Amino acid sequence: MTACPSCGAGTPADAAFCEACGAELTPGAAAAGAPSGAPTQVVAAAATPVTSTTGDESPLDVGWTGALPRAKVTEPATPTAGAVGAAEPMAAAATAPAAGAVGAAEPMAAPEPAGPECQACHQGHLVDGYCDVCGAPPRDPRDHFTESPAPWVAGACDIGKRHTRNEDGLALLADPTPGTRAVLVVCDGVSNTTDSHIASLAAARAAREVLAAPLPQGMGTRESRVAALSSALGEAVKAADAAVEGAVPAGTENPPSSTVVAVVIDAGLAVVGNVGDSRAYWLPDVGEPRQLSTDDSWAGEMIRAGASRADAESGPRAHAITRWLGVDAPDDLTPHCADLDLDTPGWLLVCSDGLWNYCSEAMALRDLLASTLTGLGPAPVDLVAAAEALVTFANAQGGADNITVALARIDGSGSAHPPTKDTTHG
Amino acid sequence: MAEFTAEAFQNEFLPDGGTDVHAIVRFTARDTASGVAGATAIGSAGGADAAEIIIVDTSGSMGVNGIRQGVYAAGAAIQEILDGTWFAVIAGNHVGSLVYPRSPVAAMVRMDARTRAEALAAIQLFRADGGTAMGTWLSAARAVFSTVPQAGRRHAILLTDGANEHETPEQLSAAIAAATGVFQCDCRGVGDRWQVGEVRRIASALLGTVDLIPAPEHMAAEFAAMMRASMARGIANADLRVWAPQGAQVLFVRQVAPTLEELTARRAEVNALTGGYPTGAWSDESRDYHVAVRLPARSVGQEQLASRVQLVVGDQTVAQALVKATWSNDDALTTRIAPEVAAYTGRAELAAAIQDGLAAKAAGNDAEATSKLGRAVQLATQAGDDEMTSRLKKVVDIEDPEAGTVRLKKGVEKLDEMALDTASTKTSRVRR
């Protein structure tokens, strides 16, 4: 048995994922794994979970970030400093052999080489694991990470500027051949629920794992392929829900909740499934851009009832979601599904409300993406840089919530079928 | 090679909105006699790069017996000075005079068999005469030390028997200021006519100790011990460096063991975020420092470095401790006080109560003296410091040690008061 780097639960040595939290157990994934060991926050469960707290964060949201065991991550390898906070109760056991002072038996080198730039103040550099100007520890890798399984698929997941914890999750998968096969999953953990930062990442990875398996093709016709992929998305949502439920021990007060939006790209066809208000957009280079996902939110209900998007999304309860994953989720977790033929060049953009809060309309989002790409310079486009640039945009607008952006570049060489209308299953 | 270690004792957990971080940082030096790599020019003492001056009070008040014991004491110290060490002897009354080497201008010589014999002969010429102006002694010592700029470690031992009556306090202050950073000085007062506060001012600024020698007969042993201790200091100069993050405020930096010494005002800027505090020469020993830093409060769950406390020899950081802050809403974590911090905080208050109480008593303010010394008794009792309690008992009658209720004793021995005063800043090491 080994300990999961994310939640600390025991896992079989050969396991690819943690049974407890869903974190990937491969060495490379550990850095991005959800931290843990955080004391649980007990807060009254909201009747309606809210995924965004734009401008009105509860003080309860200012919680433990569940910092990673930094000693292992950031301590300089050279045995220079004789530094130990000997009075640390939590570290006492771990450092027992070296309890108390660690001698600087060898003279310390001077001047010390500057470490990486501090991500908190951007003025100093990390020395001995802390910024030499503001004293901040290194940024928790959970607070900001990117994925890019292939050059045509990438994403960035960021804490934003106002939250103390990154409760968004991101999981991507892609075949090296552009347009052939990819999975993009974004989850947005509900603020103020226990360990939702663990739950959201576990959920995204659990959904990706389901969609990583060979996908059913149905009868091979377009309709049966859509139905089969929609069915697979339903299974992925169930797995994500199980991961959210399993992120904390049974009976935990105020258990975590999360949204999920997943896009499967398979041989010229894309199918989207979502529960909650995280979104997928189709932003073609030419033609009408549109939102593919269907918001399970108060605003979404209002829009479907005829209200303008601007009015609905600026209402006081705009971000109240009406369906979510988790222990206290509604019974029906069948995702809203939509499908799309990838026969024209364009972009699939999957995001949490940390981005779309600042750019909701599909047309505006396409313009934003276009100007962002222009800002990155001439082609070829670096999709990681593009996703990061959109995160930077959202942070520049205030970064009131966690921000996750995933992009897939579609070259349009897929199916010859024209894009079809959204079809909502369930 | 000399080896240094650093330990931090603190409770890093602050409550929501908490701003003040306290830590005791203990530095321990071993094998200092072998110096520090790359810092040989300022490293090993006791030999070619050390300089010692013996300053003996030869004012009229010393009398025949005092001078005789002063000669013994100076001789005992001379015997302890290692060959190769630069040295000189100064006789002090209302002026400071170079007794050895016999030279019309300031000078020092290296110790060897011949110079030792010459110095022992020269001190026989001590005569009790004139007044007391310790500032002139310090100025003379500074001039003598300035002739050996190559000496990395400069140390003097000063003996006095009386108050500084023949110069103004301002003149003494100016002489102390001029000598600060030039040499270290351990000071001893013999008898009961000297002023503890006055001599403490010299010793404190010049990074030395102050103590009482009850009778002239004890001087020789004390001088020999002081010089032996000085010869053992293999590290010439070490600086304490305290870094605090941008936006933070260093509330105070205080040496708390082996003696209490307020260092806050001695800060020399190393850079905008780092202050340097001279600590003088080190032998194989351990010293504790209390560092208090005020941070802008951060949100619960956040962690940061509150201070980086280093010991620097030459340009080398030889040891460092990190003082941290983590904000928590867990009362079980945030309400604890590290025992070392608590003990030394109480110890500093005890010293202040004793010194203030004795000063009030000397000024005839019996009410304040009773109150302060009562508080001292209470603190000593709480700390289980029986030695200090028994010293206090010689000055006050204790009615209720827990409540700190005392009466000033009648007919107190002046020496007992002085012993209490000099002992007030000596701290027993707080064990983990």
Write a brief caption for the model.
The complex is a heterodimer of chains A (426) and B (432). In chain A, 24% of the residues lie in helices and 19% in strands.
Mind explaining what this structure looks like?
The complex is a heterodimer of chains A (426) and B (432). Chain A is an alpha+beta fold and 426 residues long. Chain A has two domains: 1-38, no CATH class; 141-410, 4-Layer Sandwich (Phosphatase 2c, domain 1). Chain A contains ten helices and 17 strands. In chain A, the strands form five sheets. A six-stranded antiparallel β-sheet of chain A has the order 5-6-17-16-12-13. In chain A, strands 7-8-10-11-15 form a five-stranded antiparallel β-sheet, covered by helices on one side. In chain A, a hairpin with a 5-residue loop joins strand 12 (279-284) and strand 13. In chain A, helix 4 runs antiparallel to helix 5 (222-246). Chain A is globular and about 60 Å long. By secondary structure, chain B is an alpha+beta fold. Chain B has eleven helices and 20 strands. In chain B, strands 4, 5, 6, 7, 8, 9 and 10 form a seven-stranded mixed β-sheet that branches. In chain B, strands 2-18-17-11-15-14 form a six-stranded mixed β-sheet, with no helix packed on it. In chain B, strands 1-3-16-12-13 form a five-stranded antiparallel β-sheet, covered by helices on one side. Chain B is globular. The A-B interface holds A 38-39, 62-65, 67, 81-89, 100-105, 107-108, 110, 121, 123, 128, 130-137, 164-165 and B 1, 3-12, 23, 26, 28, 36-38, 243-248, 273, 295, 299-306, 308, 315-324, 330, 333, 338, 340, 432.
